[in-house]
Amino acid sequence: MAAKQGARVRQRVAVRGGFVARGWLGSCVRSPRVRVRQEPSRKLSRRSRKEETSRRVVVHGLSSDEIDDLLVFQEPEEEEAKGECYGCGAHLQTRSEKAAGYVKRETYEAKKKHRQLNQILCSRCHLLCNGKMVPGIEDWGTRLIRGGQEEAGPSGSGGDFERESLLTPDELRRQLLGLKSKRSLVLHLVDLTDIQGTFLRNIRDLVSKNPVMIIGTKMDLLPKGSNVKDVADWLHQYIEDKGLNPISVVLCSSKSRFGIRQTASLMKKNRKGRDVMVIGAANVGKSAFIRSLLNEMSSMKSANYDVGAAQIRHKPVESDMPGTTLGIIPLRAFERGGVLFDTPGLHLEHRLIHMMLPSEVKSVLPRRPLSPYIAKTPASILFESKLVEQQERGERMSGVGDAEEDGGATPTGYEEDLLDDLLENPGAVEGASATYLWGDVARLDVLSCPMSTHLVFCGSKAMRITAQPLVKDAEEEEKEEETVNLWGDAATTDDSAEADVGEDLGGLTVPLLKERLRDAGLKVGGRKDELIERLLQHEASVSPSRTTDGKEDASLSSDGESSEHGLVSVRARGGLTMTKELVIQTPGYSGNAIQPIVDICISGVPGWITVYAKSSDEPIRCRVYTPRGIQTFLREPFPIDVIEY
């Protein structure tokens, strides 16, 4: 008995930080003020042992109430959630509703009990599936809307999120570096509407020496009549010029499933037991491509049927929001081994969509095939400006009243003489020039060019094109004491601005007024004063809101959207600035036909501008204005036929 008592270890409490114990072997709770001191028990007499047992807890410097508070049982800390969201790959969590990967605690516990953690979709993915634009990556657009969130942060439209929980582009890139050592077949997705902005020039830094297949996505958005073989050959040549030798180039559409069967067949042929890694820039369509690929491999009617793909019930989520996927999603789509990896999209800062508000990104993305638009030529703008100058000098054309009655269809003798003079003596004038505004996110100034120059804007119909006489530089404007706003429209600071606009419209001919009405989708019938009044009402309805001092208000509206594409985000970045000055030489063509010379591409803008002209010794000089940090590229003309040669 004495030996057992000697071997017993007695716990005594001391106020020195650490633990506090109740009884000899009682339950312990953590406290910053007390700790347990363990020491071997000495031999005690029956009386001493009785006194020691009655006390049990010896605390120095604490009252009995404080001891009771310390000894109250405390709930254990909430266990950290495990697993990832199958829709976006974000780590599951049950703490913050405004962070990616959030799921209700009861939902998580129920799935965990039934071992179904791989079947959980986070709340952010639920919003994305319902058309909401909830960011997950920190970029310029999220920082911009975060700055105005305290005043107007629309829930589910980009303002209802925690900035601290957003991932950075560098964190996404580090996730991909972990796949560099894997033996895999790489499917590099390139957006056919924004090839220069989505092609990864340093792809070898991410995939090492693994074989690469180039997949051109969004084939359904190319202009109608595009030849698949010509586009594939053009893309293959472009990729090789950039120093990458792909094993194959395939064009496909996840929406119409065009080319998906051919892509699955080539992937199956070149995989050779390796994993498959799908990579690309943000918003290039990786998740949509994987969903279409799995649907093809799950169909028993397809020659590419695989049991592994058919067993996948929960597929990645697709949305218009750049950065939908936040983590690497492994999909066991191959029965004989191997994993299909859906990876986060790389955020390239030189793309326009990464500096726009989420609502603006959704509105600027095309839903239908790109539509080529032949803009008014610089020569015709020069001709019209000469007519207006002549009218301002008081030299009215003969038969103006007759022109107004029949819509101005019959050119007057003066117009014919002026046109003949411009065509016969092009050196007698300063040269054809014009300013083009493209969707309020880009501006092209043609400083001088041959009279045969044409510009074809191939883009979304929502990106409105406006042509006007060349806007002068800021230095020249200061000398003439004029002000020009960000978009190149003449702005006045006095109270007679509306009257000046009316006078400018009054100086235009009836055909020009009707052309403006057609561009705006308005009725073109009526007399000249009625046409002017209709245009004034339309311009007043679409003009940006102004503050009391006459300046345009660039703050966020209650719904986070602006009346123009990119207007708020572009102004917050400092407006449009000159990013590139171009001198384009027209090559010597045989014959006298108009030929495509070069494409001008703006990173992140779906579409491009094709420059057409006849062979001439005179170069085409122009300047490109974009938001700060957005890159401009030149490339060989895309193989589409717009102007018959």
From TrEMBL:
Pfam families: MMR_HSR1 (PF01926), SAP (PF02037). One of its GO terms (molecular function) is GTPase activity. PANTHER family: NO-ASSOCIATED PROTEIN 1, CHLOROPLASTIC/MITOCHONDRIAL (PTHR47569), NO-ASSOCIATED PROTEIN 1, CHLOROPLASTIC_MITOCHONDRIAL (PTHR47569:SF2). It comes from Chloropicon primus. Residues 505-539 form the SAP domain. InterPro entries: GTP-bd, NOA1, P-loop_NTPase, SAP_dom, SAP_dom_sf. Residues 392-415, 538-566 are annotated as: Disordered. This is Nitric-oxide synthase.
